[in-house]
Amino acid sequence: MRKRFSCRLSYLLIFCLLCLIQTSGANAALSKYVKKHRNISVTNKQAANVARFNHLIEYFSSFSYFKPRHKVNANFIRALMLAESNGEPRATSNKDAKGLCQITFPTGKQAASELAKKNINFRYVSKRRLLNLRPHDLYSPSINILLTCYLISKYNYTFQGKLDLVVAAWNAGEYSITNNRPPQYKETLNLIGKVNGYFIYFLKNQR
């Protein structure tokens, strides 16, 4: 019952975000991309791609990385994964971001170093591997998903779980956000819209 309530609450928060964006003239550009992707669907191939990593998503999203009992929503990770790579672990961007959720090596290295200092023992990924992270490690689904869950948890904590700011921090960096608004980069705004659309899809279709 608690999990079902949590999902309904998440959906309500997203709905409120959509209403806020659409009724405010302060961010017409973001509204455009939210509307563009609001009815996005997931193909059978995309669903199969993500399903391959469900055990890792559920496991690494079960940890409270920054605040007790505050965990990353697994469906948000699925949404981010589809928006970034369509669930392809060998994906590489033109900015050299790698893996399922498209992490650059400097960001991944910093996150891995921070994680290694926490008193958490993970299955699938050793502390030694985190401390000695190499660029090609970001193609490993277990490492990529772990670092993603940690970073999204960090941004959730920093930006009070506001979806647009969390995705903006993920895409453009924490310091790109000013006056509690995401930067007006086309790539960032489009990603916010896609993640939001996929997240709503997964919440609606969760079994």
Features:
207 residues; mainly alpha; Lysozyme; 59% helix; 0% strand; disordered N terminus
Structural notes for this entry:
The chain contains ten helices and no strands. It is mostly helical and 207 residues long. The chain has one domain (2-204): Lysozyme. It is globular and about 45 Å long. Residues 1-16 and 18-26 have low confidence and may be disordered.
Largest sheet: none
Shape: globular
Uncertain stretches of 5 or more adjacent residues: 1-16, 18-26
- Stated plainly, the CATH topology is called Lysozyme
Which structural category fits the helices and strands?
mainly alpha
Gap from first CA to last CA: 13 Å
What is the CA-atom radius of gyration, in angstroms?
16 Å
Overall pLDDT metric: 89
Give the CATH class: Mainly Alpha
Percentage of residues assigned to helices:
55-70%
Beta percentage is under 5%
CATH architecture: Orthogonal Bundle
* Count of extended strands: 0
Overall structural domain count: 1
Number of helices: 10
Secondary-structure element order, N to C: HHHHHHHHHH
Write a short abstract of this structure.
The chain is 59% helix and 0% strand.
Question: What is the fold's blueprint, element by element?
Answer:
Blueprint: H1 2-23, H2 28-37, H3 44-51, H4 54-60, H5 74-85, H6 105-116, H7 127-131, H8 141-158, H9 163-172, H10 186-204
